[in-house]
Amino acid sequence: MNVARLVIWRILLSLITLLLVSAAIFAIIEVLPGDVASRMLGRDATPQALAVFREKMHLDQPALVRYFNWLSGMMRGDLGNALTSSRPIADILAPRIFNTVLLSLYAFIIYIPLALVPALIQAANRDRKVDHAVSVINLLFLSIPDYLLGTLLLVTFGVALPLLPAISRVDETSSAIQYLRAMTLPALTLAIAMAIAAVRMLRDNLIEVLDSEYVRMAELKGLPPRAVLLRHALPNALVPTLNVTAINLGYLIGGVVIVEKVFSYPGFGGLLVDSLQLRDVPLIEATVLIASTVYIGANLLADLGAILLNPRLRTS
Amino acid sequence: MTMVASGATARSSLALRIRSLWRRAPLSLKIGATLLVLHFVIALTGPFWAPYGASEIRTGPPLSGASLAHPFGIDQLGRDVFSRVIHGSHIVILLSLSSTFIGLIIGAMVGLLSGYIRGWFDEILQRLLEAVISIPFLVLALIAIVAAGPTLAGNPILLVFVIAFIYAPRIARMARAAALDIVTRDFVTVARLRGESAWSIVRRELLPNATSVLLVEFALRAGYAPVLIGSLGFLGFGMRPPTPEWGLMMSENRALITFSPMTVLGPGLMLASLVVGLNLFTEGLARILGRTVKLADQ
C-alpha cells in the first residue's frame, strides 16, 4: 500500500519537474529580456531575416500563448517544423535518435565489464597496494576531459593503427558491420568515461556489503572468497549502483554531444550542436526537452528501482 | 628589542604550525597543493618568460612538429603552442575560480536561506532547482550561451555567469541539506528566540557552521570548471579565437594531430594536470574536514 503511494508520488514529482523544465527551457531561450529575433540573429541580421524569424516564430503573440501552443504541440507529439530547413522536426530527429540509442547501448555493454572488473579487484584487495594503485589510475583518468580521451583513441586506433574508421559517418545505406565499426571508438570513449565515474562508488558499495553480517556468515560457512565476492556481495552492491547508473545516463546525454562531435557521428548530440550553431530555435527546444526527459526518466527509474528493491522501504 | 624578539617568535611559531599541519596532511593534499602552486606560478609569471607571444606568428616553420625550441610544436598559423598554453594558463584559472566562486555565493545564500525558512518557499524553490538540474549541464550551458546571442558570444563575463548559473542550483542543494542539519541545533533556537532576523541567522549561525561543506563543494566544482570551459571552447561556444584557451586550442589543432600530436596533447596535458591537482587537493581537503567526497558526481 505504502509502496504504491510512494511510487505514484515519485512519478507525479517527475511530471511536475518535467513541466517546470519545459518552462525553464522556453524561458531561457525566448523570454530573456530583449527582442528574441535580434538577440538570436545578432546585430548584423538583415531586416528581412528578422522579419522572417519573427513570422515563423509567431513573435507577434504574447510569450505565454506561444509557450502553451508549443507545450500542447509537444504533448500531442507534434514537434513542429525546423526553422532553417522547414522540415518536420520529428523526421529530422528520428534517425538521429536511432543512431544515438544504438551508440548508447553499445557503450553500456562495454561499460559494464570496464566498471565491474576494477571495482572487484579493488574490493578483493582492499587497502592493499593494488587497491591504491587502481584508485590513483582512476583519479588520473577522471581528470582527462572526454574530448581529449576521444581524440587520443581516434589517433591511436583510427590513424596510427588504422583498425577503425577515423570518421564515424553512417547513414541508412550502411551495413551492420559498417555501423559496428563506426560506433566502436565513440562507444569506447563513452564507456571509459562512464566506467571511471562508477568504479569508485561500486568499490565502496562492494566493501560496505563485504563488511555485512550475511557476508561474514557466508565466509564462516567456509565458502571460497571468490564465491563470497561474486555470489553474495556483488548482487547486493548492484542496488546502490543503480543510482550511479542514473548519474551516468545523465552524463551520457552531455557526453554524446562532445563524443559525436569528435567522431563526426550523426547522432542526437551532434544535431543539438548543429541546431545551436544555426540558431534553429524550434529544433533546439525540441532536442533539449527530449534530452531532459530522458534524464528525468532515468532518475525516476533509478529511484523506483531502489524503492522496489529495498525491503526496508517496502515495509516502513 | 623585546618587540622584535616576540615578533620573530610569532613568525617562527606560525611557520612551525604550517609545517606541522603540512606534515600531518594526507598525501593527496600534498601532491594536489604542489601541482596547484606550480600552475599558479605559471599563470602569474608565464607571460614574462614565455618564449613567444600568445598571437605571435612566424615563430618557426609551421607544422614542423615538436622540437626543443617548440616543445608543443607550431600551429597552422605559425604560432608557438607552448607559449600559447602558458599565456592561456591565467585565463583558464581565472575563469574557473571566479565562476565557481560566484556560483558558490549565490548557491550558498539561496540554499541556506531555503533550508532555514522551510515551508512553501522552500518547497517551490526546491522544485525549481530540481528542474534546472534536470537539464544536463553541458546542454544547459550551451542554450544559455546561445540565448545570450552572438553579440555576447566569446565574452568571458558571459562564460563566468553561465557556469555560475549551472553550479548555483547544485551548490544550493548541498547548502540546503547542510542547513537542515544545522537548524536543529540549540544555538539556532537561541538566536531565533533572541529575535534575530532570518538573514542574520543565516549569515551568523548557519554560514560559519556550513563552511566545511561549502569549502569541499567549492573545490569539487572548481575542479570541473576547467573541463567545462574547455568543452564549451572545443564545441565552439566558449572563448573565441585567438584566445589561448586550452579547450579551444585543442579543437583548433585537431587537424594537425597526425603529424604534430603535441599541438593537441600539450594543452590537454596542462588541462589534465590542473584538474588532477584540483581533484587531489579536494580529496585531501575533504579527508581533513572529515567529509566524503564523490569526485565522479559532478
Oligomer state of the chains in this structure: heterodimer
Q: Name the pair of protein chains with the most residues at their interface, and give those residue counts.
A: A-B, 57 and 49 residues
- Cα-to-Cα separation, first versus last residue of chain B: 55 Å
Give the count of helical stretches of chain B.
Answer: 11
Q: What is the general shape of chain B?
A: globular
Description:
The complex is a heterodimer of chains A (about 325) and B (about 300). Chain A is mostly helical. Chain A contains 13 helices and no strands. The radius of gyration of chain A is 24 Å and the shape is globular. The mean pLDDT of chain A is about 85. Chain B is mostly helical and about 300 residues long. Helices cover about 70% and strands about 0% of the residues of chain B. Chain B has 11 helices and no strands. In chain B, α3 crosses α9, α6 packs antiparallel against α9 and α7 runs antiparallel to α8. The chains are: A mainly alpha (about 325), B mainly alpha (about 300). At the A-B interface, α1, α2, α6, α7 and α8 of A face α4, α5, α9, α10 and α11 of B.
